[in-house]
Amino acid sequence: MSLYLQPVRVAASGDDTHGQLVFADGFLVAVLVRLSDQHGADVGFWFLEAGFGLTAGMSAPLFLDLAAAQDWIVRHLGTKRGRG
Question: Which CA distances in Å does 69 have to 75, 84?
Fold first, then answer.
């Protein structure tokens, strides 16, 4: 599975505007948003703002960096595909 990230500005709550669109094999599977300082100790972490297809409705942890977010997405997409 090949992931591709594309920077995007997101109209999310407050100052959380730095985002990344996440594509898996050419399909949009997630929107990640970097948390701003309004989130206190979680500033700088990445949050799964929206999931699509296989990641829709999934509950995700906060991610320290984009690499951790990508690892989580790949792991969960692979698990879901394996059950199909």
Answer: 10, 23
Q: Is beta strand 46-51 parallel, antiparallel or unpaired with respect to 18-24?
A: unpaired
Bridge partners of residue 7, in order along the sequence: 20
Joined together, the tokens standing for residue 41 give 């100790």
Q: Tokens 């296989």 identify what position?
A: 54
Give the predicted TM-score (pTM) of the model.
0.84
Answer positive or negative: Cα dihedral of 54, 57, 58, 64: positive
Question: Hey, is 66 helix, strand or coil?
Answer: helix
Alpha-carbon gap, residue 64 to 45, rounded angstroms: 5
Query: Which tokens belong to 78?
Result: 């692979």
24-47 residue pLDDT tens = 988 999 999 998 877 788 888 999
